[in-house]
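Following up on my earlier thread - several people asked me to post the actual chain instead of describing it. Fair enough. Here it is, all 251 residues.
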Amino acid sequence: MDTTALIVGDYSNGNDAVILKGEGDLSTLSGKPVNLVELSVSHYLLAGGLDSVGLSEADLDGVINTSDADMIAAFATDDVEAVVTWNPLVSAIMEEPGATKLFDSSDIPGEIIDLMVVNTETLEANPDFGKAMAGAWYEVMSLMAAGDEGVLTAMAEASGTDLAGYKAQLASTEMFYDPAEAVAFTSGAELPATMVSVAEFLFDKGILGEGAPSADFVGVEYPDGSIAGNTDNVMFRYDTTYMQMAADGAL
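Reply from S.P.:
Thanks for posting it. Predicted structure:
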């Protein structure tokens, strides 16, 4: 489905982590099973971590698909040796005796990005929809940035944690409270390079579909109009129009 990233909200800067039971480093994972939510950002983080030490998933004793709801309980069992997950689960697991953080999203800054995405056709037909979404988003961002504890507490409850836990998550998230910062990030030179890594992961895991001949199968369009991948199959677009309107006070 042709999709547009309407808002680039933040990137994970420590909220996602690879955790080992006991002492060791990333190379210690060789020959071990790893529990994670398969084909998720956790899987992507693991791939990046393994690659950084010259390993791949083939060097593991497999990955075990484990829901986030079961992750904390799984780590407490004797059979589980390592997990990859996200907050607030990371914080809870790191409180367990012997838990060692091997790698986290701060080691690949700007790669695990939180986006608000919309149907491109819907957005093009209803630009006021884009304005409304961006306006609501940055209204909430301004309240969060100001430290509004009512807003932060509501967010915490929706995230399954308390106010202190949510503030800890925010501390390990690079939030784009200012829409101008989101525009700069989305227009930057690093994002296309990141998307190449994402596309390679998606292709390797078969997420692009059985008919995809390569990681370039899907075209990605950037704010300057440039396209990476298949120009005849553009299905994902980064559009700074509405974030820029928010920055300009033009919503």
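The longest helix spans residues 127-145. That should answer part of your original question.
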